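Q: I have 123 residues here and want to know how they pack in 3D. Can you give me a structure?
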Amino acid sequence: MEKLAEEAFSSMDISPSYAYLIITINDYPGISQKELCKKLTIAPSTSTRFIDKLVKNKFVERKPDGKHILIHLTKEGKSLCNEIYECLNNIYLRHLEILDENHSQQLIHLLHEASELIEKNNR
């Protein structure tokens, strides 16, 4: 899976991990770091490192909101989203080449279930 993702994102200057972070922020504008960690099942220290790099590259910004810091995409970050979604679609199409559609759908379903179980156990 990771190799397919690396291949799909090879045309971009960001790794799949950063791309997932960007599209999650795009889907949940103004998300807190805590919520971002939950959604991506990553450690706070990992998210801090990723966010810091994305801030440095001017793809995201931190905005204070009372006692909280919320994360938003910048214009540059938003401009990457279509290309990221295209790469994700390429991963799916590559799955279909390797696996038949039925196996590909089963894999997606199992990964989704596993993600939900992990999230449930992290609460």
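Q: Anything worth noting?
A: Strands lie at 31-32, 60-65, 68-73. DSSP finds six helices and three strands in the chain.
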